[in-house]
């Protein structure tokens, strides 16, 4: 998970976050234990039309 002490955003499921110029809602957090990579987050637009996958330090990509 994203370190809550270092960010001003709430990265829990159901929260709204800003990634770049996008404002998105988190609908799934995917932990990645023991692989050395940061956790992944599944995000959706506020109207629910577009889905994204976000990995801290690696960026965001649209998945539909």
Polypeptide structure, described:
The protein has a five-stranded antiparallel sheet with strand order 1-2-3-4-5, with no helix packed on it. Strand 3 (40-45) and strand 4 form a beta hairpin. The chain is globular and about 35 Å long. The chain has one domain (16-62). It has no helices and five strands. It is mainly beta.
Summarize this structure briefly.
With 64 residues, this protein is mainly β. It has one domain (16-62). 0% of the residues lie in helices and 44% in strands.
- Which segments are poorly predicted (pLDDT under 50) over 5 or more consecutive residues? none
Question: Beta-strand level of the residues, as a percent range?
Answer: 35-45%
The oligomerization state is single chain
Strand order of the largest sheet: 1-2-3-4-5
Number of strands: 5
Largest sheet: 5 strands, antiparallel
Query: Percentage of helical residues?
Result: under 10%
What brief labels describe this structure?
single chain; about 60 residues; mainly beta; five-stranded antiparallel beta sheet; about 45% strand
What topology emerges from the helices and strands here?
Blueprint: E1 16-19, E2 22-30, E3 40-45, E4 51-55, E5 59-62
Antiparallel strand pairs: 1-2, 2-3, 3-4, 4-5
